[in-house]
Amino acid sequence: MNKEVDTLLQNPYLNTLAYYSVAAIALILFMVIFNRITKYNDWEEIKKGNVAVAMATGGKIFGICNIFRFAILNNDSLLESLAWAGFGFVLLIVSYYLFEILTPYFKIDEEIKNGNNAVGLISFLISVSISFVIGASVL
Predict the structure, then answer these.
(1) Best-predicted range by mean pLDDT (14-18, 38-42, 112-116)
(2) Which of 6, 11, 33, 85 is most buried by a 10 A CB count?
(3) What CA–CA distance (Å, rounded) separates 136 from 114?
(4) Taking a C-beta distance cutoff of 8 angstroms, is the pair 138, 130 a contact?
(5) What is the pTM of this model?
(6) C-beta of residue 65 within 8 angstroms of C-beta of residue 25
């Protein structure tokens, strides 16, 4: 079976479709996990027009996809790429908690939910920046 799959993945179109499909499904799963971690519903807040939540969520999406980018570039198989992207996602979650812990002056989730665009922007930039650091270390 592996030989058949390897043969199919030698086609660049099927290879791209495979990586895209796995990354898209993982992105959805990772966003569901992130949505459960935050103290607000990302999509409900975005529907209400909460720009701070949109920025924070956009940073998470970019961060996850950026980690996938590095994982795909640095690994030879789809499974290895998924494993490294999953590990990178865990590190992104750790960064989220560190941001909350290292900001004792206010609660990050509450500020974002209340529409504090400055905190939303910082959250966006942390997710994006950390994703480059995580991605650079992916083997």
Answers:
(1) 112-116
(2) 85
(3) 34
(4) no
(5) 0.89
(6) no
